[in-house]
Specification:
By secondary structure, this protein is an all-alpha fold. It has one domain: Tetratricopeptide repeat domain (Serine Threonine Protein Phosphatase 5, Tetratricopeptide repeat, Alpha Horseshoe), CATH 1.25.40. It contains 8 helices and no strands. The longest helix has 25 residues.
Length: about 140
């Protein structure tokens, strides 16, 4: 027995595992706080929450994704949005992250990179109509 707990329960609450669970719960709580502030159009509190997510869990994509999305939606710090979206793709090369990268590149006027990113999203998930719509929009903008 550890601290008067039955053996199985004590293992569940071992220090490293418990810290890891608490940290993950804190990360998701911070993401939710940031999303709420973003929906309320409170840029600074949302940015602060998402920055804390990156600090708490730098090897997970959530903080990078959330912060890049905030910057793209707000039209602020757009070069940084691209860098953050690229990091999200490095950590989790999934269609949604490529889509976000394409949006960030598009907002920065980098249409060739936006097309590359949206093509990656389409290659991984060809049935999502948002990706085809984005591809068509970016291609039109890039040909002007």
């Amino acid at each position: 027995m550890v601290y008067g707990l039955p053996e199985g329960l004590a293992t569940t609450f071992s220090a490293p595992a418990f810290r890891s669970r608490i940290q993950l719960a804190t990360v998701f709580a911070r993401v939710n706080i940031g999303v709420l502030n973003m929906r309320l159009k409170r840029f600074e509190p949302a940015e602060e929450a998402f920055q804390k997510v990156r600090v708490l869990s730098p090897q997970r994509p959530e903080g990078y994704v959330a912060l890049a999305e905030l910057y793209v939606r707000a039209g602020r710090k757009l070069p940084e949005a691209t860098t953050l979206a690229q990091k999200a793709v490095e950590l989790a090369p999934i269609p949604a992250n490529y889509f976000l990268l394409s949006l960030a590149c598009e907002r920065n006027g980098d249409f060739p990179e936006a097309l590359k990113a949206i093509q990656q999203a389409m290659d991984q998930d060809p049935d999502d109509p948002r990706y085809q719509e984005a591809y068509d929009r970016i291609r039109k903008k890039g040909s002007r």
